[in-house]
């Protein structure tokens, strides 16, 4: 092992990263690469080398071959999809996590990793003002770090199926009888998770007229009809901050419908959940008292690199009853004493890295004040962008919520044409979507280097493309 | 953002990691911490700080509070479970991956990340001498990096269910009719994945008498009986290198049974798969021509940190038909051209980090020669340990394959007592299991710092505990 050179090369890599971040901050790099499909493939040899190569050479090659073909999610002109945040604290934590190289599947496989995760999940639950019962300290609930909101909703749905089946699910599976409810506005990860869980197509509950929010009365009616037809409503997935328009389902009313019927309520707050760090952005917490599980992607809007989704459950035994399994080679006295948490039973994978160090570093390095400031900063940039758009003829702000601004041109043809022009522009990345059947552009503010000057630059780029249309 | 201090703190962290690795290599640290449950929880404040703290202080605290409560998987005395490997190249790659902070859900969300992954999966397929059709370059198959073997078998099972249902599965789920087959020796992640996929309890096929290997004739009989009973055999999971005894199911015969019946064959080679880097350890590749999917944990035995499992499929459309889903906000011209790979459709999560950089760094830094040398080194240590055990009265080697030595004392009472003594010993970690109803100890060689001297130290520790028994 080349330990000797590691420290020097790692220091070099850190310097390069700082230079890279500065180049991004200064918008000296394009957001989107220009190479056609196959560019990177062609640049890489067809076979792995037989002999080892120097780390310094591989590092060079990273900047020569790979970096120019990346979409720079941390670029100030990156407004695509939802952000995947980052910060030096998060990067440092990944270095340390990798270097320590422990595996935290069970308490006994690394006690400190497990307890750190319990603690930071409690920290975050408190910082987000989530119900107390989601905390490990409550004794009944707790948080666990997943790789993604998709994996979080998958295990939540699976726990719901198990609970709804009164014990049959483990042996017999879904039997074509269980139903999971969401809406057409729910992120695609939810119908995907429902399929993966063997429950078929998720039921799309109608929206409240004129909104992108689930209609609780329609939900209740649909559940009752399904029950009458011999089906078993197992779970509802409500969203706080949908992907297309950052809409929020009426969780208090949905929760009441679920509670009356004993149905699991999972709340997907992948993006908007982080905003609850700020007291003024806590509307999305309404009704969480009814929720069985709740997930937020710290990697979307909390200066924490991907992957880092936190899933909280109100009753952890519902989760561990469903996905817990301990083979003979995993048995150990600590687990059997039932005084410790074994996170393997809270997730799909068996093995897992020390997942919590990153969130610990980020929460400490930024402090809650720093994380709130970041949210407020991004929200203020969205306000600025929305104002600029509204002040312009021939543009319309369709929706503006938190860090998201959804807008379009005066005609759909012009919107589509603008999408195409922007797709080819390397200095700004906005991603298209469809709202109420019409094409829109989404601008999600949250890339850590985006500032007022960047918003003005972005807007003048968009305007100049629009001006060229007519 | 504290970019200014980042480079300095990262350099410091790298130095500390090197010092940590040296301390591990010199066995100056215990493998297992001694603190009771709650030790780390108690050492951490109950609330996150309001104000940001210095990265240097957080780094200090990591070594003060967290490191002493970890199980050191990279310690030369760590022989527990299966290894989770590591190397400086892997750690460096994690630093760079985190620092670049891109999200590779689709080709268009980071072309270089996707194409690098295609390339390194092909590199590895070739280095392991896997069938050509598993390569992206074949046009039909391809590899994808998953977090774990559990997630790999989950998506493989889901693809199998979809294929077996001839289109019904997406809409109707598993309907209680599909069967997935494995054995009692299969890793717990497999029955767990089958449950999560909504297919209920995996069917445990009997073993060939006197072995820990699946009986292909019993498999065929069971499948045919199930089919006669109106059930649909969807998938078989065969193992190359089981967790307890590193047994290998007869894949050629199982493959023939599957092929005759059009049933998906997934081969789980989480641990032993890496050994196929060496031509002399390629027995496990026999019959892979019949396999629909194959997975190996690079993070177990390929000097690559967790998480890094590679899943190959022979027909990638089987996977993407099952778990592919593209909402309006994910549509893009490259995906629609069908000339690119979108890895979101090959896995459970939507978002994903740049997963391939780590494997690229490791394969280049070590070279295939270096990776083979590491495998041979670990296998030779297992040979040494097995010899030492066999030469000792009152001990028995139950199984010795590749890097795994399974052993016991002359009576079960003594084995159980030895397990207990070793659990309390901080300098060696062997994990217990049950083989044919009798307690055993497993010693898995593969921690990167274990060498001959370490094996002698480990053995003399075990011997001295045994000597104290009588
Ligand atoms: C509301 C919402 N839920 C879930 C997801 C899926 O997140 P992940 O990529 O972590 O699976 C997204 C992704 O953008 C999202 O916006
Ligand atoms: C044979 C085998 N398969 C699967 C797994 C599960 O691997 P993972 O932790 O990556 O899910 C293991 C873990 O040790 C294993 O030994």
Automatic annotation (TrEMBL), chains A, B:
It comes from the Bacteria. Gene3D superfamilies: Aspartate Aminotransferase, domain 1, dopa decarboxylase, N-terminal domain, Type I PLP-dependent aspartate aminotransferase-like (Major domain). Keywords: Decarboxylase, Lyase, Pyridoxal phosphate. InterPro entries: Aromatic_deC, PyrdxlP-dep_de-COase, PyrdxlP-dep_Trfase, PyrdxlP-dep_Trfase_major, PyrdxlP-dep_Trfase_small. Its cofactor is pyridoxal 5'-phosphate. The keyword Phosphoprotein does not apply. It holds the Pfam family Pyridoxal_deC. Belongs to the group II decarboxylase family. This is Pyridoxal phosphate-dependent decarboxylase family protein.
